[in-house]
Here is the input.
Amino acid sequence: MRVAQMSVDELKGELDVRNVDYEDCFSKTELVDRLVQSRASGRASPEILDKFAELDQISVDEMESVTSEGFGAVGGDGALPGGLDPAIMKALASDKEIIKFLKDPKMQEVMKSVMEGGPDAMKKYLADPDAMLMLGKLSGVINKSMKDQ
Here is the structure.
């Protein structure tokens, strides 16, 4: 299902998760446009990272409930808020190295900066080997998960 086929509540839910204001939107079309722009910018709410602090206490088998309840309801298109496929979230959450990175306060700040600023925010971390290692690992897990689908 495409973004245009999402319900108004699903659109607003994802916009809320992305911390995108939509109070000036008066139609579903405007909400769709706002969400498409938000997804294209690569921005997301950094609050999502806080959920990862709890993941080491959750088994991979319980990940389905984490993705649908902890990260926000799965949309009508089968994606988590932000358009992230639950299988990708499960792959990320089951990778111990990624969880370790995301629990590190320095790496949390890097991720929050990237989530708020989009891809352009990565530029200031190009000289930081730890940040680049983490971002490379995240990219690798996401790419592998997408190929496996």
Q: What stands out?
A: The radius of gyration is 15 Å.
